[in-house]
Design goal:
single chain, 137 residues, Aminopeptidase, seven-stranded mixed β-sheet, alpha+beta, 28% strand
């Protein structure tokens, strides 16, 4: 899986191509933001980032929220096993920025899919996995 981080000044350029993936993810889970609000946050808030996968076949929006690296939305067409690579990437990114958890909310299907990766319910809505710290040398 190729993951490309979109910088805030690039969001408007890429948004028309990937918005369908973000919109689809919002229609399947607990929605608390409109699509234009997500776009605005990716463009204007340094704690938000748009990620594009595999030549525009998928996209995600992540947000740093307290000590969580939170997946706001994710959607697209993914190859089998994509979740291992994606969430490993997020754990490494979270470790780099000092986050303690990688989290997401969403439909029940995530429970089963992410359990092998160590995700557990942090509350009734959010699933999360604690980011293991690397040992000091």
């Amino acid at each position: 899986m190729q993951i490309n981080v979109v910088q805030p000044f690039q969001v408007d350029f890429f948004w028309p191509t990937i918005a369908k993936h973000i919109e689809a993810s919002q229609s399947r889970g607990p929605v608390d933001m409109r699509l234009d609000e997500i776009q605005d946050n990716c463009r204007a808030d340094e704690r938000w980032r748009l990620l594009i996968f595999d030549h525009f076949e998928g996209a995600a929006v992540i947000r740093v929220w307290d000590d969580w690296l939170h997946v706001v939305a994710i959607g697209g067409h993914f190859q089998k096993g994509w979740e291992w690579e994606f969430f490993d990437y997020l754990k490494r990114l979270g470790r780099f920025i000092g986050a303690k958890y990688v989290t997401l909310g969403g439909r029940k299907g995530w429970d089963r899919k992410l359990a092998p990766l160590g995700f557990k319910h942090l509350d009734p809505v959010f699933l999360g996995v604690e980011i293991e710290r690397e040992l000091e040398p």
